[in-house]
């Protein structure tokens, strides 16, 4: 049986630069925590003697209609990527065959050439470019006065703002990993949830929402979703909300705000570039058909 600390150390050592995976934690303790929560049970680890040479971790979740998606950590490889990736993808294919899988998601560094080329052997639904941004909570945007906004925590399913949050989430993020049902569940269990959900108001009227995920192990606040109705976007609303998050969570011990944004979302890319965020890495989100059919070569 694989030692969780050994597996976490292997992942942590490779989860940088070219083998970075957007789903895995950024520190050893963070990775150990996730593996200990059951993720190690859905993994394949390759060995050469007693040394780990490859690993794949799968996080399977329901997407409705009796179907599931798989988010993949890695696959991570060592000195022989072709051989190691062949074994790891075979395991992934067998896991997909044993369930009703809609899509398989890989989220890797744009510099991970061996993995990107190997994944291209399978029929892909889409390949998207994502940028990972972050900013220190001590460095909020210039437009830091948010006195004209009300940012209201939503912690009860009976909240008058929940239906509007769910409606706007559906309009803005169809197919999002965090579903409408997930949002409701997180609010129902708000005292134990790592998510914080806020309604954004101006003049008492709802104009949008924010969803963040706290990671106390790393001190990073993950900005999962920020969505403002068109009529509420004037006057630097987005910059004010970033300033609100920076000030609020800095007081709770969080040192950075991090997020991923699709390269297709040009307005969001311009916003984060303009508001002091650093572009830390470029990632590829590769979506493979759940049946893992071979790619059609033209």
TrEMBL record:
InterPro entries given in the database record: Acyl_CoA_acyltransferase, GNAT_dom
Domain spans labelled N-acetyltransferase: 149-298
A molecular-function term among this protein's GO annotations: acyltransferase activity, transferring groups other than amino-acyl groups
Pfam assignment, any one: Acetyltransf_1
Gene3D superfamilies documented for this protein: 3.40.630.30
Protein name listed in UniProt: N-acetyltransferase domain-containing protein
UniProt organism field: Paenibacillus borealis
């Amino acid at each position: 049986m694989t030692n969780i600390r050994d597996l976490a150390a292997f992942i942590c050592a490779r989860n940088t630069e070219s083998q970075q995976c957007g789903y895995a934690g950024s520190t050893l303790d963070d990775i150990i925590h996730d593996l200990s929560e059951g993720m190690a049970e859905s993994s394949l680890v390759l060995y050469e003697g007693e040394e780990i040479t490859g690993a794949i971790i799968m996080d399977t979740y329901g997407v409705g209609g009796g179907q599931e998606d798989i988010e993949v950590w890695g696959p991570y490889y060592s000195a022989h990527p072709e051989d190691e990736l062949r074994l790891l993808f075979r395991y992934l294919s067998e896991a997909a065959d044993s369930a009703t899988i809609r899509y398989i998601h890989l989220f890797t560094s744009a510099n991970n050439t061996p993995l990107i080329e190997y994944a291209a052997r399978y029929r892909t639904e889409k390949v998207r470019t994502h940028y990972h941004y972050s900013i220190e909570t001590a460095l909020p945007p210039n437009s830091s006065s948010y006195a004209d906004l009300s940012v209201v925590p939503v912690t009860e399913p009976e909240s008058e703002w929940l239906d509007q949050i769910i409606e706007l989430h559906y309009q803005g993020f169809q197919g999002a990993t965090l579903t409408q049902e997930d949002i409701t569940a997180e609010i129902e269990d708000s005292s134990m949830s790592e998510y914080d959900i806020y309604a954004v108001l101006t003049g008492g009227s709802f104009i949008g929402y924010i969803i963040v995920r706290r990671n106390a192990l790393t001190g990073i606040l993950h900005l999962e979703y920020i969505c403002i109705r068109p009529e509420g976007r004037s006057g630097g609303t987005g910059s004010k909300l970033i300033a609100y998050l920076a000030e609020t969570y800095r007081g709770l011990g969080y040192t950075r705000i991090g997020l991923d944004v699709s390269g297709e979302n040009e307005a969001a890319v311009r916003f984060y570039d303009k508001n002091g965020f650093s572009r830390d890495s470029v990632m590829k989100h590769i979506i493979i058909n759940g049946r893992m059919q071979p790619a059609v070569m033209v």
